[in-house]
Write a structure and sequence with these properties.
single chain; 4-stranded mixed β-sheet; alpha/beta; disordered N terminus
């Protein structure tokens, strides 16, 4: 069955998702993600968003929270870094830029889940065919409301109680939480009390090997976003999400905690596998960076690293500041980390490579 819709995957979460990420990233990255920043607060008992998505989203045993500052290098670290550097580095003119466009919304118990019509970007059995709560106040990634006007990635990320709902390519044509036609791509529902990535996590690793999520790599987005509140507090206590142009990503295999990859042409001599965890070298002079905000991010990259999650051109992903107390303006600018080059990083040991088969066999109702 998987093979029937393989062609859809080729332009799905990895390839098409990556291309639109680069568009949204370069647009929203330059505006610091502060659109609608005055809409903090609650409406009808539903909070519009949460202030810090990363630390504490999942149990502390999840891989995002592991200190890898002294972890062993992957045997292919040198080849992967050299290949990435030779293929053009980060993309975006080899500039490490920050995308500030992704929201993480919060819905209280009064928000009733909405059903949606599955689009061609919904993959069976990878994705969860369940209703999703849409807060009265909120917006999609890169948009001013719930309408995907830009035809971009339009991620919809919502926390309700102990559940995290992450949808790729969401669209409510009215732009409002209630009313209008709700179309959606892949939805991944996560139980925030469960560490999916331990070897004993039943019945499968994560949501199932060979299975995607709202991100091409198959893991959650929200756990890897860093927020203005975290940076203002002076410490990010988790790994960070990063993306690369598709031609630099391995099309044939991945490493855990990723559970998925995408088919595409790779130009790098040794392409980076999904699930790769890169660490900023301890020798990098963090004090040389232009802002304290940049130094906070760099220290997190040395201690927790960053996970390859999707395809695109804007390397790092932060949480939008619409609903945070701190704001990005004056704290961290989109290019404050442009001094960080590919050769300033190393790849820590990712374990065995898992050949890509795209044969997801999970129970779609297992969340």
């Amino acid at each position: 069955m998987r093979g029937i819709w393989l062609l859809a995957l080729l332009v799905g979460c990895g390839d098409d998702n990556g291309g639109t990420t680069s568009t949204n990233g370069s647009t929203n990255g330059s505006t610091n993600g502060s659109t609608n920043g005055s809409t903090n607060g609650s409406t009808n008992g539903s909070t519009g968003g949460i202030g810090g998505a990363g630390k504490g989203v999942f149990p502390s045993t999840a891989p995002w929270y592991t200190d890898i500052s002294s972890a062993a290098l992957d045997p292919q670290s040198g080849a992967v870094i050299s290949g990435l550097d030779g293929a053009g580095g980060w993309g975006n003119g080899d500039v490490m830029q920050i995308d500030f466009s992704i929201e993480v919304l919060a819905a209280d118990a009064s928000v009733q889940p909405r059903s949606f019509t599955q689009t061609g970007d919904f993959y069976d059995p990878d994705c969860d065919p369940v209703p999703i709560p849409v807060p009265p106040v909120g917006r999609l990634e890169g948009e001013s409301d719930y309408h995907c006007a830009s035809d971009g990635d339009c991620h919809l990320l919502v926390v309700q109680g102990t559940r995290l709902y992450e949808m790729w390519r969401a669209d409510i044509d009215s732009g409002q939480a209630v009313g209008g036609t709700f179309n959606g791509g892949c939805l991944a529902v996560w139980d925030l009390t469960h560490d999916y990535w331990t070897p004993t996590a039943p019945p499968d690793f994560a949501r199932g090997d060979q299975c995607t999520s709202a991100d091409a790599a198959g893991y959650p987005i929200s756990a890897l976003l860093f927020s203005a509140d975290e940076v203002a507090a002076g410490e990010i206590k988790h790994a960070i999400r990063f993306i690369l142009p598709n031609d630099r990503i391995d099309p044939d295999q991945y490493v855990h905690p990723a559970t998925h990859a995408t088919r595409h042409s790779a130009s790098a001599a040794t392409p980076v596998p999904y699930g790769a965890r890169l660490r900023l070298k301890a020798s990098f002079d963090v004090a040389s960076l232009p802002s304290e905000g940049a130094r906070v991010v760099a220290r997190a990259l040395q201690k927790y690293g960053m996970f390859l999650a999707d395809g695109g051109n804007i390397a790092l992903t932060a949480q939008a500041d619409t609903y945070t107390t701190a704001k990005w303006s004056g704290l961290l600018e989109p290019r404050d980390l442009d001094a960080l080059k590919v050769t300033d990083f190393e790849m820590i040991d990712g374990g065995s490579r898992i050949p890509l088969t795209l044969d997801c066999t999970r129970d779609p109702l297992m969340q």
